[in-house]
Amino acid sequence: MNLLRKLLRAGEGIVLVASFLALCLLPLVDTAGRSLGGFHVPGSADLVQSVTLWLTFVGALAATGQGAHLTLSTSQWLGEGRLGRAARWVAGAVSAAVAALLAYASVQVVRANRLDPRMLSIGVPEWVPEMVMPLALAAMALTFAHRAHGTWRGRAAALLAIPAAFAAGLLPPPLASKAWIAAAGILASLLVGTPVFVALGGVAICLFFAQGTPVAAVSAEIYRLVASPTLPAIPLLAGAGYVLAESGASDRLVRFFRAWLGFMPGGLAVMVAMVCALFTTFTGGSGVTIIALGGLVYPMLRKDGYPEGFSLGLVTASGALGLLLPPSLPVILYSIVASGRDAVVPADRLYLAGLLPGLLLIGLTAAYGILVGRRAEGPRSPFTWAEALGATWKAKWELLLPLVIVGLFASGRATMLETAAGALAYAILAECFITRDLHPVRDLPRVLLRASALMGAVLILLSVAMGLTSYLVDAQLPDALLAWTRVHIHSRIVFLLALNVLLLALGSVLEIYSAIIVLAPIIAPMGALYGIHPVHLGIIFLANLEVGFLLPPVGLNLFLASSRFGTPLPRLYRTVLPFLLILGIGLLLITYVPGLSMALPGWAGKG
């Protein structure tokens, strides 16, 4: 059994690394081919779509085995006792049942697509790679049941949830119409650790079933997302971020910022804010930043005399900075989801619009750090040109990466996907062959596997969330909310204030990717009703979710920092409160001063 498990894990790893590298090489070959006489890979767009599909589902299977799927932070309250074990069993049983239903829905999609005679350029029918969906989801169902309990009796009991779920599909119409009760139960299971993607997929299945729509509609919506020419940029940029995080880049960047800023009062705090924002920009979320950099910068702050509470609060808050700056992954996703028939929100405009607001939030955090630094009167690093230039030279490859990404995309010679592929290739070249921090054979596959598990968890969540969004649109929920808003809220200022409160609250309990998928299609038409520019609305949306990471009692950064530093949550609430107030001021400025968002797009002729 152990040998079989090792062989399956090895095969899983080979597929994921190969998928990552293929996803990187295909766009690069097309980019280079355009410069060398028009050469291109035949059918590369379809190949990229198939590779992304494999990366999504095999990565999701890897995340299941590692317990790495995104969950609500509330499950951590339950501890390791009897209550915690019961909660994990419930989460495992619900997850196994929903994954099995999604596998069945995917089989229906593949069967329908078999009627299409189209072939990939490698001579394989298009439906063949799609088989990864039901196979991976079925394996995930078994894995969820296996992880639900430490005994075979408990695992068998969790496994029984699968036939029970299918039996529920045979209920007569009067009872089937009550499927919303099951949907409410699945949502409630989020509180005990059910992955977010399971809850969204399960709710979508229940709602479609109650409506009499085939559950295959949930899996069919995957293609609406995977077929996007921009979506594969998300795993590629995340891969580049992971390569940087696993190398010595963090040490070089810390040295760079300290060399240039260490002479200032509060210079170390400014450095922490800036380097954390840079890592969050590349990794697409605060988790990697707090886990990877927290252990490096927190002791430095304490050694330099900063108060313990301030140091904890700064690292926790700084992990949320940078999500508005290029090449942030949530910006790309918002561009994909919010663009529709009524409005198009290009990623390049969002990046331009988010630059000043993003720098504002970093600047406010840094300014508070300077204020505390003056009071702490800790030792300062004397500025010397030799150290500043030496640190810059050592960090030159990491410092050039943002310029390479922005330059490629802004030049118009590369699409967002090609730019992301170039970023990953650049990061691998720099960290494996120039700085040699990572061995290309021993270390790089391990780093790409970690990135694959994260991206599998994110992409499967996006896929099933798109199914729920499809139901909400079919049920005309956005239209109903629009009509209610038109009747009850007459002031643009009141609408924006209500939007801030709503998004902050939801941003504290929802993972940012699922929040974008579910909420953006609903919020976008409401913003248009009040004459809010769609690009400005996007910046408001993302900034609120960014600050929501810090909102007690269940903001994601609070739980990450509590776990990383072994600090009780009530104490963390007190330490982040000043930062929450400061960032709240920045959020109000971003919301009510549209010039912050629209100045740079207007200056660049993209307003």
Report on this structure:
It is a single chain. The protein has 607 residues and is mainly alpha-helical. The protein folds into 2 domains: 64-226, no CATH class; 233-603, no CATH class. Helices cover 76% and strands 0% of the residues. The chain has 29 helices and no strands. The longest helix is centred in the N-terminal third of the chain and has 34 residues, at 2-35. The relative contact order is 0.12.
What's the main sheet like?
Answer: none
Mean pLDDT comes to 84
Separation, N- and C-terminal Cα atoms: 60 Å
Helix content: over 70%
Low-confidence segments: none
Give me the number of helical elements. 29
- The rounded Rg comes to 24 Å
Number of domains: 2
Oligomer: single chain
How many beta strands in the DSSP annotation? Answer: 0
| Global morphology | globular
Quote the beta fraction: under 5%
Q: Give me the secondary-structure category.
A: mainly alpha
H/E element sequence: HHHHHHHHHHHHHHHHHHHHHHHHHHHHH
